Amino acid sequence: MRFRNEIYQNHEKGVTAMDEMDATLKREIHLARNIQMKLLNGAKPKLPSGEVSGVSIPARLIGGDYFDFYPLTNGKIRIIIGDVMGKGIPAAMLMILTRGAFRSAAEATKGPGETLTAMNNALYSDLRTLGSFVTVFCADWDPNAQIFTYASGGHNLPVIIRRNFEPLEPPAAKGVMLGGLPDQIYKDERINLEEDDFVFFYTDGIVEAQNREGAMFKHDRLVPLLIENCHKSASEIEVGIEKALSAFTEGLPQKDDITMVILKVGPECTEIASYNSPLMSS
Amino acid sequence: MLDVKRTYKDMELILAISGILDYSTVQEFNRQTESLQDADKVILDFSEMEFLDSTGIGVVLDLLHRTFENEIAFEITGLNEVAREVFDTVGVFEIVNAMGGRVTS
Predict the structure, then answer these.
(1) pTM of the predicted structure, to 2 decimals
(2) What residues of chain A, 188 to 247, have a C-beta less than 8 Å from chain B?
(3) Tens of pLDDT, residues A5-50
(4) Which of A39, A109, B25, B67 could connect to A115 by a Cys-Cys bridge, CB 3.0–4.6 Å?
(5) Cα B56 from chain centre
(6) Complex ipTM
Protein backbone atom coordinates (compact mmCIF):
# COMPACT_ATOMS: atom_id res chain seq x y z
CA MET A 1 0.00 0.00 0.00
CA ARG A 2 2.82 2.35 0.98
CA PHE A 3 4.63 1.45 -2.23
CA ARG A 4 1.55 2.22 -4.33
CA ASN A 5 1.15 5.62 -2.60
CA GLU A 6 4.79 6.45 -3.31
CA ILE A 7 4.34 5.61 -6.97
CA TYR A 8 1.26 7.82 -7.10
CA GLN A 9 3.06 10.71 -5.37
CA ASN A 10 6.10 10.40 -7.66
CA HIS A 11 3.83 10.39 -10.69
CA GLU A 12 2.13 13.53 -9.40
CA LYS A 13 5.54 15.21 -8.90
CA GLY A 14 6.67 14.19 -12.40
CA VAL A 15 3.61 15.71 -14.03
CA THR A 16 4.04 18.94 -12.07
CA ALA A 17 7.74 19.25 -12.94
CA MET A 18 6.89 18.81 -16.63
CA ASP A 19 4.14 21.43 -16.43
CA GLU A 20 6.52 23.84 -14.73
CA MET A 21 9.15 23.31 -17.40
CA ASP A 22 6.56 23.88 -20.14
CA ALA A 23 5.39 27.08 -18.48
CA THR A 24 8.99 28.31 -18.06
CA LEU A 25 9.85 27.57 -21.67
CA LYS A 26 6.73 29.32 -22.93
CA ARG A 27 7.47 32.36 -20.81
CA GLU A 28 11.08 32.50 -21.99
CA ILE A 29 10.14 32.10 -25.65
CA HIS A 30 7.69 34.97 -25.33
CA LEU A 31 10.36 37.09 -23.66
CA ALA A 32 12.78 36.20 -26.45
CA ARG A 33 10.13 37.16 -29.01
CA ASN A 34 9.65 40.45 -27.23
CA ILE A 35 13.37 41.18 -27.41
CA GLN A 36 13.54 40.28 -31.09
CA MET A 37 10.47 42.30 -32.04
CA LYS A 38 11.78 45.37 -30.22
CA LEU A 39 15.20 45.08 -31.82
CA LEU A 40 13.83 44.43 -35.28
CA ASN A 41 10.74 46.57 -35.51
CA GLY A 42 11.92 49.65 -33.66
CA ALA A 43 11.70 53.31 -34.64
CA LYS A 44 12.26 54.03 -38.34
CA PRO A 45 15.19 56.30 -39.13
CA LYS A 46 14.32 59.74 -40.47
CA LEU A 47 15.89 60.57 -43.82
CA PRO A 48 16.49 64.14 -44.95
CA SER A 49 14.51 63.19 -48.04
CA GLY A 50 12.25 60.24 -48.81
CA GLU A 51 11.55 57.49 -46.30
CA VAL A 52 12.73 54.07 -45.25
CA SER A 53 10.84 51.43 -43.33
CA GLY A 54 10.93 47.71 -42.59
CA VAL A 55 8.94 44.94 -40.99
CA SER A 56 9.70 41.34 -40.09
CA ILE A 57 7.11 38.67 -39.38
CA PRO A 58 8.52 35.37 -38.10
CA ALA A 59 6.86 32.10 -39.12
CA ARG A 60 7.06 30.94 -35.51
CA LEU A 61 7.24 33.05 -32.37
CA ILE A 62 10.80 34.04 -33.21
CA GLY A 63 12.79 33.67 -36.42
CA GLY A 64 15.99 34.14 -38.36
CA ASP A 65 15.17 37.04 -40.68
CA TYR A 66 16.90 40.31 -40.04
CA PHE A 67 16.93 43.90 -41.20
CA ASP A 68 18.66 46.95 -39.81
CA PHE A 69 19.55 50.56 -40.49
CA TYR A 70 22.77 52.34 -39.61
CA PRO A 71 22.95 56.12 -40.01
CA LEU A 72 26.13 57.33 -41.70
CA THR A 73 27.49 60.85 -42.13
CA ASN A 74 25.87 63.54 -44.25
CA GLY A 75 22.39 62.06 -44.14
CA LYS A 76 23.43 58.76 -45.68
CA ILE A 77 22.11 55.49 -44.36
CA ARG A 78 23.30 51.88 -44.50
CA ILE A 79 20.57 49.28 -44.89
CA ILE A 80 20.86 45.53 -44.45
CA ILE A 81 18.46 42.65 -44.87
CA GLY A 82 19.33 39.06 -44.08
CA ASP A 83 18.06 35.53 -43.70
CA VAL A 84 19.66 33.05 -41.30
CA MET A 85 19.45 29.40 -42.31
CA GLY A 86 16.59 27.61 -40.60
CA LYS A 87 13.79 28.85 -38.35
CA GLY A 88 12.77 29.42 -34.77
CA ILE A 89 15.04 29.72 -31.75
CA PRO A 90 18.31 28.51 -33.35
CA ALA A 91 17.93 30.94 -36.26
CA ALA A 92 16.96 33.76 -33.91
CA MET A 93 20.12 33.26 -31.85
CA LEU A 94 22.24 33.57 -34.99
CA MET A 95 20.22 36.59 -36.08
CA ILE A 96 21.35 38.41 -32.94
CA LEU A 97 24.96 37.44 -33.71
CA THR A 98 24.55 38.82 -37.24
CA ARG A 99 23.08 42.07 -35.93
CA GLY A 100 26.08 42.58 -33.67
CA ALA A 101 28.49 41.88 -36.51
CA PHE A 102 26.67 44.34 -38.80
CA ARG A 103 26.64 47.18 -36.28
CA SER A 104 30.33 46.72 -35.47
CA ALA A 105 31.27 46.52 -39.14
CA ALA A 106 29.08 49.43 -40.24
CA GLU A 107 30.87 51.71 -37.79
CA ALA A 108 34.24 51.15 -39.41
CA THR A 109 33.73 50.34 -43.09
CA LYS A 110 33.46 52.55 -46.17
CA GLY A 111 30.74 50.77 -48.11
CA PRO A 112 28.38 47.77 -48.25
CA GLY A 113 30.98 45.46 -49.79
CA GLU A 114 33.51 46.20 -47.07
CA THR A 115 30.78 45.75 -44.48
CA LEU A 116 29.96 42.26 -45.73
CA THR A 117 33.65 41.37 -45.96
CA ALA A 118 34.12 42.38 -42.32
CA MET A 119 30.96 40.53 -41.25
CA ASN A 120 32.03 37.31 -42.96
CA ASN A 121 35.48 37.56 -41.38
CA ALA A 122 33.85 37.99 -37.96
CA LEU A 123 31.20 35.29 -38.34
CA TYR A 124 32.70 32.63 -40.63
CA SER A 125 34.26 30.45 -37.95
CA ASP A 126 31.15 30.40 -35.73
CA LEU A 127 28.79 29.78 -38.64
CA ARG A 128 30.94 26.93 -39.96
CA THR A 129 31.14 25.35 -36.51
CA LEU A 130 27.35 25.50 -36.26
CA GLY A 131 26.84 24.30 -39.85
CA SER A 132 24.85 27.43 -40.60
CA PHE A 133 24.98 30.46 -42.89
CA VAL A 134 23.33 33.82 -43.44
CA THR A 135 22.36 35.41 -46.74
CA VAL A 136 22.59 39.20 -46.62
CA PHE A 137 22.08 42.21 -48.86
CA CYS A 138 23.60 45.51 -47.80
CA ALA A 139 23.13 48.94 -49.35
CA ASP A 140 24.15 52.54 -48.76
CA TRP A 141 21.66 55.19 -49.73
CA ASP A 142 22.96 58.69 -50.31
CA PRO A 143 19.93 60.99 -50.64
CA ASN A 144 22.24 63.90 -51.43
CA ALA A 145 23.96 62.40 -54.46
CA GLN A 146 21.00 60.00 -55.04
CA ILE A 147 23.38 57.08 -55.34
CA PHE A 148 22.37 53.58 -54.28
CA THR A 149 25.45 51.43 -53.57
CA TYR A 150 25.01 47.77 -52.75
CA ALA A 151 26.61 44.36 -52.24
CA SER A 152 25.22 40.87 -51.77
CA GLY A 153 26.26 37.88 -49.72
CA GLY A 154 24.06 35.24 -51.31
CA HIS A 155 20.86 37.27 -51.08
CA ASN A 156 18.43 38.21 -53.82
CA LEU A 157 18.57 41.70 -55.28
CA PRO A 158 15.77 44.09 -54.31
CA VAL A 159 12.98 44.97 -56.70
CA ILE A 160 13.40 48.52 -57.97
CA ILE A 161 10.43 50.35 -59.47
CA ARG A 162 11.16 53.55 -61.33
CA ARG A 163 9.01 56.68 -61.07
CA ASN A 164 7.50 55.75 -64.46
CA PHE A 165 6.31 52.45 -62.87
CA GLU A 166 8.83 50.39 -64.83
CA PRO A 167 10.84 47.77 -62.94
CA LEU A 168 14.60 48.30 -63.13
CA GLU A 169 17.00 45.37 -63.24
CA PRO A 170 20.05 46.55 -61.28
CA PRO A 171 23.53 45.21 -62.14
CA ALA A 172 24.06 41.79 -60.56
CA ALA A 173 25.96 41.69 -57.28
CA LYS A 174 27.26 38.21 -56.71
CA GLY A 175 28.70 36.98 -53.44
CA VAL A 176 28.76 33.85 -51.31
CA MET A 177 26.52 33.72 -48.25
CA LEU A 178 28.18 34.58 -44.94
CA GLY A 179 29.63 31.39 -43.48
CA GLY A 180 30.05 29.82 -46.91
CA LEU A 181 33.73 30.43 -47.64
CA PRO A 182 36.45 32.18 -45.65
CA ASP A 183 38.26 35.37 -46.66
CA GLN A 184 35.65 36.56 -49.13
CA ILE A 185 35.82 40.01 -50.70
CA TYR A 186 32.42 41.47 -51.47
CA LYS A 187 32.27 44.08 -54.21
CA ASP A 188 30.08 47.16 -54.51
CA GLU A 189 27.76 47.95 -57.37
CA ARG A 190 26.06 51.29 -57.69
CA ILE A 191 23.17 52.92 -59.53
CA ASN A 192 21.59 56.35 -59.55
CA LEU A 193 18.03 56.69 -58.37
CA GLU A 194 15.60 59.56 -58.88
CA GLU A 195 12.78 61.13 -56.95
CA ASP A 196 9.78 58.78 -56.63
CA ASP A 197 11.84 55.67 -57.40
CA PHE A 198 11.12 52.86 -54.98
CA VAL A 199 13.31 50.02 -53.70
CA PHE A 200 11.81 46.88 -52.15
CA PHE A 201 14.19 44.59 -50.26
CA TYR A 202 12.76 41.23 -49.18
CA THR A 203 13.46 37.73 -47.96
CA ASP A 204 12.36 34.59 -49.77
CA GLY A 205 9.50 33.97 -47.35
CA ILE A 206 7.49 36.35 -49.52
CA VAL A 207 8.07 34.83 -52.95
CA GLU A 208 7.94 31.28 -51.56
CA ALA A 209 4.62 31.72 -49.73
CA GLN A 210 2.25 29.00 -50.95
CA ASN A 211 -1.51 28.74 -51.42
CA ARG A 212 -3.67 25.66 -50.92
CA GLU A 213 -2.88 24.44 -54.43
CA GLY A 214 0.83 24.54 -53.67
CA ALA A 215 1.48 27.45 -56.04
CA MET A 216 4.07 29.99 -54.88
CA PHE A 217 3.59 33.74 -54.72
CA LYS A 218 6.70 34.39 -56.84
CA HIS A 219 7.95 37.53 -58.56
CA ASP A 220 5.11 37.26 -61.06
CA ARG A 221 2.71 38.38 -58.35
CA LEU A 222 5.08 40.52 -56.28
CA VAL A 223 6.25 42.93 -59.00
CA PRO A 224 2.77 43.94 -60.28
CA LEU A 225 1.65 44.34 -56.67
CA LEU A 226 4.57 46.68 -55.98
CA ILE A 227 3.89 48.69 -59.12
CA GLU A 228 0.27 49.04 -58.07
CA ASN A 229 1.22 50.29 -54.60
CA CYS A 230 4.49 52.16 -55.13
CA HIS A 231 2.87 55.62 -54.89
CA LYS A 232 1.71 54.94 -51.31
CA SER A 233 3.67 55.53 -48.10
CA ALA A 234 6.11 52.86 -46.93
CA SER A 235 3.86 51.67 -44.10
CA GLU A 236 0.86 51.51 -46.45
CA ILE A 237 2.88 49.38 -48.84
CA GLU A 238 3.91 47.05 -46.01
CA VAL A 239 0.29 46.58 -45.01
CA GLY A 240 -0.70 46.05 -48.64
CA ILE A 241 1.90 43.31 -49.12
CA GLU A 242 0.93 41.60 -45.86
CA LYS A 243 -2.74 41.63 -46.86
CA ALA A 244 -1.98 40.27 -50.32
CA LEU A 245 0.09 37.44 -48.86
CA SER A 246 -2.57 36.63 -46.33
CA ALA A 247 -5.23 36.49 -49.06
CA PHE A 248 -2.97 34.36 -51.26
CA THR A 249 -2.12 31.80 -48.55
CA GLU A 250 -5.81 31.53 -47.64
CA GLY A 251 -5.28 31.18 -43.92
CA LEU A 252 -2.58 28.50 -44.16
CA PRO A 253 0.11 28.68 -41.43
CA GLN A 254 3.04 30.87 -42.45
CA LYS A 255 5.82 28.62 -43.75
CA ASP A 256 8.82 30.89 -43.54
CA ASP A 257 9.84 34.19 -41.96
CA ILE A 258 8.76 37.21 -44.00
CA THR A 259 10.73 40.43 -44.06
CA MET A 260 10.57 43.52 -46.23
CA VAL A 261 12.38 46.86 -46.26
CA ILE A 262 11.14 49.77 -48.31
CA LEU A 263 13.13 52.77 -49.51
CA LYS A 264 11.20 55.59 -51.13
CA VAL A 265 13.34 58.17 -52.88
CA GLY A 266 12.48 61.80 -52.22
CA PRO A 267 13.76 64.96 -53.88
CA GLU A 268 17.50 65.56 -54.06
CA CYS A 269 18.85 67.08 -50.83
CA THR A 270 20.46 70.28 -52.01
CA GLU A 271 20.08 71.74 -48.48
CA ILE A 272 22.28 68.99 -47.00
CA ALA A 273 24.92 69.55 -49.68
CA SER A 274 25.08 73.23 -48.73
CA TYR A 275 25.22 72.55 -45.00
CA ASN A 276 28.20 70.22 -45.38
CA SER A 277 30.05 72.30 -47.93
CA PRO A 278 33.44 73.48 -46.58
CA LEU A 279 32.88 76.83 -48.34
CA MET A 280 29.92 77.55 -46.10
CA SER A 281 31.64 77.02 -42.74
CA SER A 282 33.26 80.03 -41.17
CA MET B 1 8.08 13.93 -47.83
CA LEU B 2 11.63 13.10 -48.82
CA ASP B 3 13.19 10.01 -50.30
CA VAL B 4 16.85 9.39 -51.04
CA LYS B 5 17.55 6.51 -53.40
CA ARG B 6 21.05 5.13 -53.00
CA THR B 7 22.87 3.50 -55.90
CA TYR B 8 26.40 2.26 -55.41
CA LYS B 9 28.50 1.21 -58.37
CA ASP B 10 32.23 1.21 -59.13
CA MET B 11 33.06 3.17 -55.99
CA GLU B 12 30.51 5.87 -56.91
CA LEU B 13 27.57 6.55 -54.62
CA ILE B 14 24.62 8.23 -56.30
CA LEU B 15 22.11 9.83 -53.93
CA ALA B 16 18.94 10.60 -55.89
CA ILE B 17 16.74 13.00 -53.94
CA SER B 18 13.01 13.10 -54.54
CA GLY B 19 10.40 15.22 -52.81
CA ILE B 20 10.99 18.12 -50.49
CA LEU B 21 14.28 18.91 -48.75
CA ASP B 22 13.42 21.42 -46.06
CA TYR B 23 13.33 22.04 -42.32
CA SER B 24 10.96 19.14 -41.78
CA THR B 25 12.91 16.54 -43.80
CA VAL B 26 16.60 17.34 -43.23
CA GLN B 27 16.90 14.82 -40.42
CA GLU B 28 15.73 12.11 -42.82
CA PHE B 29 18.27 13.36 -45.40
CA ASN B 30 21.05 13.16 -42.81
CA ARG B 31 19.96 9.69 -41.77
CA GLN B 32 19.92 8.44 -45.35
CA THR B 33 23.25 10.01 -46.25
CA GLU B 34 25.14 9.15 -43.08
CA SER B 35 26.94 6.21 -44.65
CA LEU B 36 29.04 6.93 -47.74
CA GLN B 37 29.92 3.26 -48.20
CA ASP B 38 33.64 3.80 -48.86
CA ALA B 39 32.80 5.61 -52.09
CA ASP B 40 35.48 7.70 -53.70
CA LYS B 41 32.82 9.85 -55.37
CA VAL B 42 29.40 11.04 -54.23
CA ILE B 43 26.85 12.34 -56.74
CA LEU B 44 23.81 14.26 -55.51
CA ASP B 45 21.07 13.97 -58.10
CA PHE B 46 18.34 16.59 -57.75
CA SER B 47 16.31 15.58 -60.83
CA GLU B 48 13.26 14.57 -58.78
CA MET B 49 13.53 17.19 -56.07
CA GLU B 50 10.45 19.39 -55.78
CA PHE B 51 11.57 22.06 -53.33
CA LEU B 52 14.37 22.93 -50.98
CA ASP B 53 14.76 25.69 -48.42
CA SER B 54 17.77 27.18 -46.64
CA THR B 55 17.96 24.28 -44.19
CA GLY B 56 18.06 21.93 -47.18
CA ILE B 57 20.93 23.95 -48.65
CA GLY B 58 22.64 23.70 -45.26
CA VAL B 59 22.65 19.90 -45.21
CA VAL B 60 23.85 19.75 -48.82
CA LEU B 61 26.79 21.94 -47.79
CA ASP B 62 27.39 19.76 -44.71
CA LEU B 63 27.61 16.74 -47.00
CA LEU B 64 29.97 18.63 -49.29
CA HIS B 65 32.23 19.48 -46.35
CA ARG B 66 32.14 15.88 -45.18
CA THR B 67 33.21 14.54 -48.57
CA PHE B 68 35.90 17.21 -48.83
CA GLU B 69 37.33 16.31 -45.41
CA ASN B 70 37.39 12.64 -46.41
CA GLU B 71 38.91 13.32 -49.83
CA ILE B 72 35.83 12.04 -51.64
CA ALA B 73 34.91 13.63 -54.98
CA PHE B 74 31.58 15.47 -55.03
CA GLU B 75 29.16 16.26 -57.83
CA ILE B 76 25.75 17.93 -58.04
CA THR B 77 23.53 17.11 -60.98
CA GLY B 78 19.93 17.33 -62.17
CA LEU B 79 19.14 20.83 -60.91
CA ASN B 80 16.04 22.38 -62.43
CA GLU B 81 15.99 26.07 -63.38
CA VAL B 82 14.59 27.26 -60.05
CA ALA B 83 17.00 25.24 -57.90
CA ARG B 84 19.90 26.28 -60.12
CA GLU B 85 19.00 29.93 -59.64
CA VAL B 86 18.73 29.52 -55.86
CA PHE B 87 22.08 27.73 -55.67
CA ASP B 88 23.64 30.38 -57.87
CA THR B 89 22.26 33.26 -55.80
CA VAL B 90 23.36 31.94 -52.41
CA GLY B 91 26.81 30.92 -53.69
CA VAL B 92 26.64 27.13 -53.55
CA PHE B 93 28.40 26.79 -56.90
CA GLU B 94 31.35 28.89 -55.69
CA ILE B 95 31.62 26.70 -52.60
CA VAL B 96 31.44 23.48 -54.64
CA ASN B 97 34.12 24.78 -57.01
CA ALA B 98 36.34 25.98 -54.17
CA MET B 99 36.22 22.46 -52.71
CA GLY B 100 37.05 20.77 -55.97
CA GLY B 101 33.52 19.57 -56.69
CA ARG B 102 31.54 19.64 -59.93
CA VAL B 103 28.13 20.77 -61.04
CA THR B 104 26.68 19.08 -64.09
CA SER B 105 23.36 19.11 -65.88
Answers:
(1) 0.90
(2) 204, 208
(3) 655 555 565 668 888 888 998 999 999 998 888 888 778 898 888 9
(4) A109
(5) 9
(6) 0.92
